[in-house]
Design goal:
The complex is a heterodimer.
Chain A: E1 3-11, E2 16-24, E3 32-37, H1 41-59, E4 63-68, H2 85-103, E5 107-112, H3 115-126, E6 133-136, H4 142-159, H5 167-175, E7 179-182, E8 185-188, H6 189-196, H7 200-203, E9 209-216, H8 225-236, E10 240-247, H9 261-274
Chain B: H1 4-15, H2 18-21, H3 39-53, H4 70-80
Helix pairs in contact in B: 1-3
Classes of the chains: A alpha/beta, B mainly alpha.
Chain lengths: 275, 81
């Protein structure tokens, strides 16, 4: 099936937002819509190429994907320092409601890394139990996403022989509502607070179908106790977990842009099975 | 206990320099010598170490000394194990 890619701006709650719609060339052939929520910070940039490649594969099967850059990120207007979790959520709610009303097709929410947290919240807000959730290497706890970012700042300081801030002072600054620049991104205290308050198992509605695909450096390694516990928590909520793992690099943070063909084929196959 | 071989594999995987990493010894310098070893790489290696060994590295344990050489990184990990 022929595929088309359209790029356009929509008016978000505060700013103009950049959208990319990857779909069958003829939307009459479309049988489902995926709404993608990206990873945070540089992880978003490092994974964009794979997300688009995945969207193309899905479009060839009649599944459209909307890739919306949250306010202040990617090519959307606004700046990161003013990022507001609630505004991001509202912008996604608006997009979801618009496309659902316009096309009346099954919807799948797709979150990657910390984007999984926003995807889960979006599902909670306006999805139904019929809306599957596709997760790529999900971050289940916003605190761990922030910790990694703070570590990048610390590592940068370490290498520049600058000890002006340590983990404790960075966290205190954020708690006071200050904006701290980490790895080139200005992160405001409010955003950090909302991020760290989010845990996916607290957000997800019960009886969700979760398609969880992990890219791991070593698929033969024993599953961590933390992951086993997370799966059990989801099962205790009567959620259906379709878990897959493929071998590959952590492409969202790799030095070079990486390609993981197995991730794309596995994701396509899983989505086709739930539709 | 960990040895430099395991760490070489982790560093090689994380930085995407698999073949080069196999030539490392415990004296191989990391920060400041390997161009790919930037601040993002430090964090990625820390996360990979945590996942591989099932340990948690506390905020105040992160310091530049651990990343000076492959050997110093091995010492850092062994202190945690």
């Amino acid at each position: 099936m022929e595929v088309q890619i359209q790029a356009f701006f929509t008016q978000g709650r505060r700013q103009k937002l950049f959208n990319v719609l990857v779909s069958p060339a003829d939307m009459q052939d479309c049988r489902a819509i995926v709404l993608f929520i990206p990873a945070l910070w540089d992880e978003m940039n490092h994974s964009r190429h794979l997300v688009t490649a995945q969207a193309r594969l899905l479009a060839a099967e009649g599944i459209a994907t909307l890739i919306l850059d949250p306010e202040g990120t990617g090519d959307s207007y606004g700046d990161y320092a003013s990022a507001d979790w609630e505004i991001w959520l509202e912008d996604y709610v608006d997009a979801l409601e618009h496309w659902s009303a316009h096309y009346k097709l099954p919807v799948i929410l797709w979150g990657m890394r910390a984007g999984a947290l926003l995807a889960g919240e979006l599902l909670n807000r306006c999805g139904s139990n019929e809306t599957p959730l596709l997760l790529w290497n999900p971050v289940f706890d916003g605190e761990s996403a922030l910790r990694e970012m703070i570590r990048v700042k610390l590592a940068g300081q370490m290498m520049g022989n600058n000890q002006s801030m340590n983990m404790k002072t960075i966290r205190e600054s954020l708690k006071n509502g200050d904006t701290v620049t980490m790895a080139g991104y200005s992160i405001c205290g409010d955003f950090a607070g909302k991020l760290t308050a989010r845990k996916l198992v607290d957000i997800l509605p019960a009886r969700t179908t979760v398609i969880w695909v992990d890219v791991l450096r070593n698929c033969l390694a024993k599953e961590s106790p933390a992951k086993i516990k997370l799966k059990k928590q989801l099962e205790d909520m009567d959620s259906t977990i379709r878990y897959s793992k493929v071998e590959g690099p952590s492409f969202w943070q790799s030095v070079e842009l990486e390609f993981v063909p197995d991730l794309l084929s596995t994701t396509k196959s899983e989505l086709l099975q739930v539709l | 206990m960990t040895d430099t071989d395991e760490l070489k594999n982790i560093i090689g995987d994380v930085l995407g320099i698999g073949d080069r990493a196999q030539t490392f010894t415990s004296n191989t310098e990391l920060i400041g010598s390997i161009p790919e070893f930037d601040s993002m790489a430090v964090v990625s290696v820390l996360t990979a170490i945590e996942e591989h060994y099932g340990i948690t590295i506390e905020d105040d344990e992160i310091n530049v000394d651990a990343f000076l050489t492959v050997g110093s990184l091995a010492d850092f990990v062994n202190d945690k194990l």
